[in-house]
Amino acid sequence: MIDPKVELLKLKNLGPKTVPHLVEIGILSRNDLVAIGTEEVFRRIYFRYRDESRLSLNYLYALEGAIEDCDWRWISAERKLELKSFFSSIKQ
Questions:
Q1: With CB atoms 3.0 to 4.6 Å apart as the test, which of 7, 12, 22, 36 could cross-link to 27 if both were Cys?
Q2: What distance in Å separates the CA atoms of residue 76 and residue 85, rounded to the nearest whole number?
Q3: What structural domains does the chain harbor?
Q4: pTM over the 0.85 mark
């Protein structure tokens, strides 16, 4: 069996601090990320790790980039605005 951490580390924008968070909440592949979606994955991570980790807007962008298979800086301005609004709402 392939280690999910190894597979997740192959995705764009995901690094050694993000991947353990994903595995902990049951995200074991890109397919899991896509099926659950950026906002829900971030919501689960946020409520699990908010006291232990600094979860930023860039973390949210990184998840979106991993799902879209692009560098987070290439996410459209419109989508970034949606994610920023989501981020603001979850931090309240």
A1: 22
A2: 14
A3: 4-90 (1.10.150.20)
A4: yes
